[in-house]
Design goal:
By secondary structure, this protein is mainly α. Helix content is 81%, strand content 0%.
């Protein structure tokens, strides 16, 4: 009987602990988001050089001790903000991946590129700090996302073209996009207005390439 009561007490204590922990976890998550939001604001206003731990703490109205609890240094803070952007663009990847093959086949070359790129361009325009971070954050080739949606689109639109050639077209489209941004976007070092112009011109270049390829292989 005593053991049963002890077990019940232990279970109730565990439930109370879990119930108490959830609000604390929610508050902690909210504080982290506030800190990241403040970091993003300061990046846009002052550039990366103007972002300091104390400055972010003041903007987020968060005690500096709490800042260091979540982010031991400035680099970890910027990395966390970058990870948040990567998670958000990953959701865009997933949404594009849900579009069916027939839809991709029915679109013009220009509409295809517009459908593929506009969500990312819109995100970057709404989150200009991401454009600035993009100029300095490490880009590990081994961690690049697979070209799943782009490959799906090219395969759907050119089913009679050899697989090796389709793969080449996908790689060229990716190279045109990433190469153009690496050459022009990074040197801009956070010139958001200029970066927006580059992004839209890259979209035009990709549409022209895809149209030319399809005209040559599909007749």
């Amino acid at each position: 009987m005593t053991k049963h009561r002890d077990d019940d007490t232990s279970q109730h204590d565990s439930e109370r602990t879990t119930a108490a922990r959830s609000p604390l976890q929610a508050r902690g998550r909210a504080r982290i988001e506030a800190v990241l939001d403040a970091t993003a604001e300061l990046i846009v206003e002052k550039g990366l050089a103007g972002v300091t731990m104390h400055g972010v703490a003041r903007r987020a109205e968060t005690p500096i001790g709490s800042m260091y609890h979540f982010f031991p240094d400035r680099e970890s803070l910027l990395s966390a903000l970058w990870d948040r952007h990567m998670a958000a663009t990953g959701e865009i990847d997933d949404e594009l991946g849900q579009i069916d093959i027939e839809t991709w086949r029915a679109l013009s070359s220009e509409a295809v590129i517009d459908r593929l790129m506009t969500p990312y361009i819109t995100y970057l325009e709404q989150n200009p700090d991401c454009l600035i971070l993009m100029t300095v954050m490490p880009h590990d080739d081994n961690k690049k996302r697979e070209p799943g949606t782009l490959r799906k689109v090219v395969d759907a639109r050119m089913p009679n073209v050899k697989a090796a050639e389709r793969a080449l077209y996908v790689e060229i489209l990716r190279a045109l996009a990433s190469g153009s941004l690496a050459i022009k976007l990074r040197p801009a070092m956070g010139d958001v207005q200029l970066a927006r112009r580059y992004l839209r011109e890259v979209k035009r270049a990709l549409a022209a390439y895809l149209a030319a390829v399809e005209a040559s292989v599909l007749g």
